[in-house]
TrEMBL record:
It holds the Pfam family MipA. Residues 1-31 form the signal peptide. PANTHER family: MLTA-INTERACTING PROTEIN-RELATED. InterPro entries: MipA. It is found in: Cell outer membrane. This is MipA/OmpV family protein. Coiled coil: none annotated. Belongs to the MipA/OmpV family. The keyword Signal applies. Keywords: Cell outer membrane, Membrane, Signal.
Amino acid sequence: MFCTKYIDWRLTRSALFVTFTSLGTASTVLAADASLADQAQEPPFDQERFNNEAVKPSWSLIIGAGGIYEPEYEGSDEFKASPVPLVIFTYGEWLEIDPTGATITALRNGGFSLAGKVGYETGRDQDDHDRLNGLGDIDFAATVGAKAAYTWNAFEFYATLDQTIEGSESLIGTVGVEYSAPVTERLMVSAGAEVVVANDKHMQAYFGVNAAQAAASGLSEYKAEAGIKRVNVSASATYGLSEDWFVRGEAALGILTGDAADSPIVEKKLQPSASIFVGYKF
């Protein structure tokens, strides 16, 4: 994130200053003691002592809070505002834990990376909206998945695959691209687009209406099959208020397509959302 780059740069400049200062001091001392160099030779540098030193792990922790304004359910034409906590922990370049789950990067080679992820699917409650009455609940469930990505300059191209365990038993694939670049020393902007594909079970769980549900809800019976579920576009900006504090805002638009868009459950195909967060980086 922007804040990480900003702080690291300041640390790098400090490290360089200390290095140059140390070198200057060392030169002065050596010049003053040149006459003693022949009297007392330094022992050879023992590299093995340093080779055996443990490398200090790099980690970061971001905590904060914010809110999101989004449709009451996927396909709704009514919106709700919800508070959202923000906790992001990273360890080295291989582990990240955020509000969506834990990601472990198993392979990095040049711009290519391969990661595994454990997360969750929140499901859906029929009490979330009047239009969902009679459709029943979709249970909260765990998800496991993988992500392959390639970074080129300011672009990241990625593909993900996530399987829900129990719940809707969804299998969801996503292909997308994201662009991120600094505008000033404090401001970072990003923009992205992605296509989401889902299997029969996901489509039927969230957009289908079987005979029993039709009778209970008054909606027409509808069978939703696998295919492209939606296209998402987004833009965000992160601004560093100080070395440690930052604010981030995002606006996004989801466009339901195919069987998802034609479902009697869906009231509106365009699904906009907006969010804002304030965070502190340790």
